[in-house]
Amino acid sequence: MLIHPWDAAQDEEEWVGFVRAQQFGHLVAAGRGRDVPVVVPTQFALPSSRLVVLHLARPNPVWTAIEENPTLLLSVAGDWAYIPAAWKAIDGEDPAYGIPTTYYGAVQLIGCAEVVDDDEGKAEILRTQLAVTEPGSGAVDPAAHGRRLGGIRGVRLRVTDVRAKFKYGGNVDDAHRAEVARRLAARRGPGDAGALAQLHRRTAP
């Protein structure tokens, strides 16, 4: 994806926090010689900046693609909101000449997949995911599911490359960003609160 300097992640902490807050993405397996890659929407956990863990059903078509080529891409996007043209005009500027855009955060994690088939390995991945998705819920230890673990396979994705983008008006001045922030706060549409929080976070006080 195109990442302008003003949209780039400020540091590792920024993109890690974003990915962990989303907890959901699209796993892309290109395979070999395919017309179309396999794309799987999935929950995941990010125990460290260099490791993603997840599990998928055994019949999932992604396993064949991974066997062909273990390099995968996990695409995570969120906190998006459409910004109408008129919102980009201030101080007498003609709203008709405003340039509409979409604010969003997006992170792509690329790495090599290790497929996990042993029960203890799969149980450990499930423990890691449960600790993120429902800590303290009282759910039984995944190992207690016994034979049902055979219905899934796990993935440990060792991250080797990260592409992170936070498109929240970094190419315009504070006054224009403030007007967009005001409008987002008033509109309160789906995604507006997340985009507003990102805009405030990336705007100098």
Q: Name the helicity range.
A: 25-40%
Can you summarize the main beta sheet?
Answer: 7 strands, antiparallel
**Would you report the number of β strands?**
7
Order of helices and strands: HEEEEHEEHEHH
What this model shows, in words?
The protein has about 200 residues and is of the alpha+beta class. It has one domain (about 5-80, about 100-170): Roll (Pnp Oxidase, Chain A). The chain is about 30% helix and about 35% strand. It has five helices and seven strands. It has helices spanning about 10-20, 60-70, 120-135, 175-185, 190-200, and strands spanning about 25-30, 40-45, 45-50, 50-55, 70-85, 100-115, 150-165. It has a seven-stranded antiparallel β-sheet. A hairpin with a 2-residue loop joins strand 3 (about 45-50) and strand 4 (about 50-55). Helix 4 packs antiparallel against helix 5. The longest helix has 15 residues, at about 120-135. The mean pLDDT is about 95.
Quick overview:
With 205 residues, the chain is α+β, with helices and mostly antiparallel strands.
